[in-house]
């Protein structure tokens, strides 16, 4: 018994070290030897082409329906001393390897070591604990009302995916590592949000992302506004978001309730929120008045601003006689995002 146990351990260790090619070779050898032994035993019914693979599978896996069984003494010995014991080990090894492979792939995804295959997605770079979780949840809420996009969280912290069922996850050594960031498909992202705890890391990450994907909508958060201006001088298309906590304090002091108002305008999970929409290039140039009235009449939304396509300038609370050019961005306040606007109906 001791010898058999040692032999079993040695065989298990040896078989687990097999490559997939070795496992496939062992399976072919097992099937070939089993077929030859059954042929020698005179088990013609079992080795028939339409029977053999079915029978060997249910026998080796110990399911054993009993509908087909060896009829000769030699055949029974072959099954008892070779096909069943060797088949059980081989079957267990294959199932175990598949389970380990699936588990490893899942674990790699949770730990952020898996290469993704994403396109036209949103990449969130940086980890600020509850702040980042709030950002991810707000993005998920926004995506429920608008275009369906995948979100990828990219971090350097030693954490697991905080939202494994909703967000893809990539762990990088540094945010300007070519190979690590390629796993997040930075070059194929439509939007990149950079929010790291340190402004200098945000700066280098923004420059790296701009080099990898200059056509993406890149948003960088800075606590120091001077760095925003510096980054804009090198990468004008990057949208820099400075901290507005001081401005919010001052506004709330002079106009009580302003902080609650601004928070609601930015939070898609509660009440009325601010949204934007692209005014199509194939629409004619028009005035603010019909758009303002149309938004309110047809969608119960309040039109509040325009972003010019030519110079990128923002006009809040435009006059009713101001011009809206094709291709510009319109901003409005509504309970939900407006979809499939009939622009022609707004002119009536």
TrEMBL record:
Q: Does the keyword Ion transport apply?
A: yes
Any idea what this protein is called? Potassium channel protein
Q: Does the keyword Transport apply?
A: yes
Where does the record place the Potassium channel domain?
Answer: 27-102
Where is coiled-coil annotated?
A: none
Q: Which GO terms describe its biological process?
A: monoatomic ion transmembrane transport
Query: What species is given as this protein's source?
Result: hydrothermal vent metagenome
Q: Which UniProt keywords apply?
A: Ion channel, Ion transport, Transport
Please give the PANTHER family that the UniProt record associates with this protein.
Answer: POTASSIUM CHANNEL PROTEIN 2-RELATED-RELATED (PTHR43833), POTASSIUM CHANNEL PROTEIN YUGO-RELATED (PTHR43833:SF9)
Q: Which residues cross the membrane?
A: none
